[in-house]
């Protein structure tokens, strides 16, 4: 027993280092994964078949197993961290086992994603067989199909194969929108009918327009006549679907308010396509699936027009009022030279008019202007790409908050216009302090006298509110320091009817786009190149209410 006690005492002492020193052990733990090549055998002609139900079962099991392995990897990482923290004296060489483990999980995940896409392709095709090429075009989100391969696939595949392709690659439709419009235009032109053909579209173009109108109708770079054809088909189909859905919900006693708003917008777009007597044809050049949809109606042919003007609207404008904005564009078009086109563009979500029951003050910040400006810039780049060497004169006529939006677009790459015309501006973004900050050759501005909404006299009752009370768009393009050219809108007399309020169209006349107004005549002179005929901006004096308020302040 005494010997044991002595042994315990000796073991409790700090032992003397060994001589010679004992080398610390070396640890090496390596593991790597060979990348997997996922293919159905596209190098070989032929087709493959599969049961999508079984494929989906495999995907579910694979993802479950991978989740379990991820938990194991977490445990291994914790154990390794604990070991290296407590045994820092151990020499460590190659330790690729953790990254290798993660690579294994990544490969497993990509397997599941690929098979998931393959299953979706077979489901969309209704089972049966699919060409090996279609299956090999299925990609994981981490490795999207290159642009050239995406366009080549749409150029060559059959309808059922493209349906299967989009089902397997749900992001492909959105990725098309990100492709440079010039690339899209070259691709579309490549598919044109052979010279001497009487056909409007080639067989492949017809297939794409008929089967995927909601994609082709909004794809910048595709010819505008083709987009009009596709969007009209999409509009007809959507009207039918929404009406049927409303009937079904009504039969079940469900609320149909949102769908009725959607229907009202779609019907408004449909009505806006009707040509007034003796006017140029109208084209539906964009129609989205938003609620309500965004849309653009061109009065005149954008594929051939010598002058193109985009009319950008302000607050409270959406496609439930498409007829009104198209009427405003039509009023301008009537005054322009033959061969011109004016686009009633409701291509962004405008801020609503603030109301007691809907106190949305989005009109006082630039968030929607930034989003809308990006969309408008993309639209302008699309026209540039589509028209190429036959590029027309390009102008923007913007009203109210639309001036804020359009100004944003004219600071973005590839968005340049000949004339930027602002009407009743709610203020340009604070970073745009001079006209030369915009990619516009000329900047013109028209603005009626500021007045309060309760003032019975004429004037613009809302634009000044947007500028003065906004968070970040205070810039008034009418001011001399800005460097633009103001023009008259409320001179009166022989100059034309004065603008009496903020709206583009006013019952009884006097809106910025109303017929016989000084405002509309000056816009047409700018676009038509008759700027020497512009009426000068002469500020209209204060209203009686404004005078009374000033006198009241003096008395105090």
Automatic annotation (TrEMBL):
Residues 294-449 form the DUF1023 domain. Pfam families: Abhydrolase_8. InterPro entries: DUF1023 (IPR010427). Residues 1-27 are annotated as: Disordered. This is DUF1023 domain-containing protein. It comes from Leucobacter edaphi.
């Amino acid at each position: 027993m005494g010997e044991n006690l002595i042994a315990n005492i000796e073991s409790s002492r700090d032992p003397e280092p060994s001589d010679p020193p004992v080398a610390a052990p070396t640890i090496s733990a390596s593991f790597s994964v060979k990348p997997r090549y996922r293919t159905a055998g596209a190098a070989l002609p032929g087709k493959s078949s599969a049961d999508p139900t079984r494929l989906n079962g495999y995907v579910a099991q694979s993802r479950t197993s991978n989740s379990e392995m991820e938990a194991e990897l977490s445990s291994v990482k914790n154990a390794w961290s604990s070991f290296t923290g407590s045994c820092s004296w151990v020499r460590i060489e190659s330790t690729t086992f953790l990254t290798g483990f993660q690579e294994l999980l990544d490969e497993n995940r990509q397997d599941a994603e690929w098979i998931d896409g393959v299953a979706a392709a077979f489901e969309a095709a209704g089972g049966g067989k699919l060409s090996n090429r279609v299956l090999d075009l299925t990609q994981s989100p981490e490795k999207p199909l290159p642009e050239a391969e995406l366009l080549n696939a749409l150029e060559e595949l059959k309808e059922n194969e493209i349906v299967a392709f989009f089902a397997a690659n749900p992001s492909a439709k959105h990725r098309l929108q990100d492709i440079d419009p010039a690339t899209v235009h070259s691709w579309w032109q490549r598919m044109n009918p052979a010279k001497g053909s009487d056909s409007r579209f080639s067989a492949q173009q017809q297939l794409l327009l008929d089967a995927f109108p909601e994609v082709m109708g909004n794809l910048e770079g595709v010819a505008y006549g083709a987009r009009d054809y596709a969007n009209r088909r999409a509009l007809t189909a959507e009207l039918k679907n929404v009406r049927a859905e409303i009937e079904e919900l009504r039969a079940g006693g469900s609320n149909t308010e949102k769908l009725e708003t959607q229907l009202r917008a779609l019907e408004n777009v449909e009505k806006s396509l009707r040509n007034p007597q003796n006017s140029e044809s109208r084209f539906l050049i964009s129609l989205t699936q938003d609620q309500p949809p965004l849309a653009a109606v061109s009065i005149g042919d954008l594929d051939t027009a010598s002058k193109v003007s985009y009319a950008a609207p302000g607050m409270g404008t959406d496609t439930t009022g498409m007829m009104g904005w198209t009427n405003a564009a039509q009023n301008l078009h009537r005054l322009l030279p033959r061969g011109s086109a004016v686009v009633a563009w409701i291509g962004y979500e405008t801020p609503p008019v603030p109301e007691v029951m809907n106190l949305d003050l989005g009109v006082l910040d630039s968030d929607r202007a930034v989003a809308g400006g990006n969309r408008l810039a993309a639209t302008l780049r699309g026209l540039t790409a589509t028209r190429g060497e036959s590029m027309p004169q390009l102008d923007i006529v913007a009203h109210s908050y639309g001036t804020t939006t359009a100004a944003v677009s004219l600071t973005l790459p590839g968005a340049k216009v000949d004339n930027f015309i602002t009407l009743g501006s709610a203020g340009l973004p604070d970073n745009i302090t001079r006209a030369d900050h915009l990619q516009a050759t000329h900047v013109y501005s028209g603005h009626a006298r500021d007045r309060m909404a309760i003032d019975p006299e004429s004037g613009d009752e809302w634009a000044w509110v947007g500028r003065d009370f906004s968070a970040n768009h205070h810039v008034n393009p009418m001011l001399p320091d800005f460097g633009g050219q103001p023009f008259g809108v409320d001179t009166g007399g022989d100059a034309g009817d004065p603008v009496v309020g903020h709206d583009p169209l006013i019952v009884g006349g006097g809106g910025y786009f109303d017929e016989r107004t000084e405002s509309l005549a000056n816009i047409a002179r700018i676009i038509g190149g008759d700027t020497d005929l512009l009426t000068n901006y002469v500020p209209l004096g204060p209203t009686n209410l404004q005078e009374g308020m000033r006198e009241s302040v003096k008395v105090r």
